[in-house]
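Re: How this chain folds, sequence and tokenised backbone to follow
How to read it: Take the token row as a discrete description of the fold.
Start of record: The labelled sequence and token lines come straight after this line.
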Amino acid sequence: MIRMVVFFVCCLLTASPVFAAPKLVASLKPLADLAAGVVGDPSRVELLLPGGASPHSFTLRPSQMRALAAADLVVWVGPQLENFLVRHLASLPEERLLTFGSLSGVRLLPARRGGAWRHEAVEHDEDGDIDPHLWLDPDNARLLVLALAERLAGIDPENGTDYRRRAERLAGWIAALQQGLSDRLAAVRTKKYLVFHDAYQYFERAFGLEPLGALAIHPDRPPGARRLRELRDLLRRSGAVCVFSEPQFEPKLLRVLTEGLALRHGQLDPLGVDRPVSGASYLDLLAGLGDGLVSCLSN
């Protein structure tokens, strides 16, 4: 039912405006989706990181550097995630930069440490003390779309009413989807599971879920043999129901981890990279996480 509603909303959020909207650059796919839902024309939003690329090791191409320099507005999470952008954004005036993690009222959660969230490798400085996956909290997403509307209205006052109208509509759809997901996920809130990497804390807090931990705290740094043994023991003792891979990464380690254990396998995608850039794709991202969790965790 939720997916059917998202499909219907797609028609409302992807109609192109008749005017030349400002040009936006977004670092990550979910930010590009939310920006497209507000600007009204996905072709006016350029996505920097392609599907499967890691923000921890990404290098900009010359064409992307030119796009940053020419953009009316650049949308990013902040230096705790897209460290590769810090040097390139340093010369941009403040009015051309929207930093998600610095918005007033946005919920910031500390990065999880220790126990099943521990990793043997020393984390890079850009990982920081804040969990940067802010977009998976629906409340944060609503704050972002409303902030985007105000910034776009400042750039293009003539069409400010349209930006605000689209932002309010998208924020309303996010709120409605949040309620629907809360109802669906209620039945699996106490089920234990393990994720591939620690990307879902905001979603889990929003819906009261109880994960055991993550196979890898950082997707680019796989765990060693000792860590795998510890996690296998945890899975045996905890009564875990499911382990989740991600489409951007090879699930071989998860197969090694769970060999011989009676666990179901699911897949979660924190970015939604296989969907076209649009406001509806952000809704589909959240709905997909809910579907994946319910499908794997339900008896």
